[in-house]
């Protein structure tokens, strides 16, 4: 069986849980210890999606969330197939910045698609989550294929984010 390598970028503000989502997906673990990503952290995972003749080699670029990053964004973002844009449900300012991250990714990858992960659902009441999801679904942007409520800590929908990502790659024949 052959495989196809795809570059995936994780973007979002500082401390939204990008690294925690990746660690939960790759290793099945969550740590309360906060580790700052400096620059980028690149990880890989080979997956075998159902009903697909190839394995997908996901090359995951976990990109730092500091504003100083914007000047070097083109170097990190170019050539990516999909972006997972992450916001922290418990910090409204990170949700306000989601559209800027989406636009930055699309600027350098006009054929790319985006999945929005509204993370840290374990820190917010259910009623508020419903409202925040409605406000941050980006239905008017055809490149945003799905908005998913996640919690890396509780393992909520982390696998679903990467399943949607794989399905998008297969569907669009990237």
Topology of helices and strands:
Layout: E1 3-12, H1 18-27, E2 40-47, E3 55-63, H2 73-77, E4 82-88, H3 92-96, H4 98-108, E5 113-119, H5 126-135, E6 144-149, H6 158-172
Parallel strand pairs: 1-3, 1-4, 4-5, 5-6
Antiparallel strand pairs: 2-3
CATH architecture: 3-Layer(aba) Sandwich
Globally, the shape reads: globular
Category by helix and strand content: alpha/beta
Distance between the termini: 18 Å
| CATH level 1 class label | Alpha Beta
DSSP, total strands: 6
Strand fraction: 25-35%
Number of domains: 1
Helical residue percent band? 25-40%
Would you kindly provide a written description of the structure presented here, covering whatever features stand out?
The protein is α/β, with parallel strands linked by helices. The chain has a single domain, classed as Rossmann fold. Helix content is 32%, strand content 27%. It contains six helices and six strands; from the N terminus they run E-H-E-E-H-E-H-H-E-H-E-H. The chain has a six-stranded mixed β-sheet, sandwiched between helices. A hairpin with a 7-residue loop joins strand 2 and strand 3. The two termini are 18 Å apart. The model has no long low-confidence stretch (mean pLDDT 89).
């Amino acid at each position: 069986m052959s495989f196809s390598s795809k570059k995936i970028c994780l973007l979002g503000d500082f401390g939204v849980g990008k690294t925690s989502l990746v660690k939960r997906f790759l290793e099945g673990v969550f740590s309360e210890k906060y580790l700052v990503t400096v620059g980028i952290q690149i990880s890989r995972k080979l997956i075998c999606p159902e009903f697909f003749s190839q394995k997908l080699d996901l090359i995951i670029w976990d990109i730092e969330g500091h504003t100083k990053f914007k000047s070097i964004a083109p170097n990190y973002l170019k050539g990516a197939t999909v972006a997972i844009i992450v916001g922290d449900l418990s910090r409204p300012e990170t949700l306000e910045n989601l559209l800027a991250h989406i636009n930055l990714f699309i600027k350098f990858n006009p054929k790319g698609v985006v999945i929005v992960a509204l993370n840290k659902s374990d820190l917010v009441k259910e009623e508020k989550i419903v409202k925040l999801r409605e406000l941050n679904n980006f239905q008017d942007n055809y490149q945003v294929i799905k908005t998913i409520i996640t919690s890396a800590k509780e393992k909520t929908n982390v696998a679903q984010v990467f399943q949607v990502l794989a399905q998008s790659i297969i569907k669009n024949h990237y």
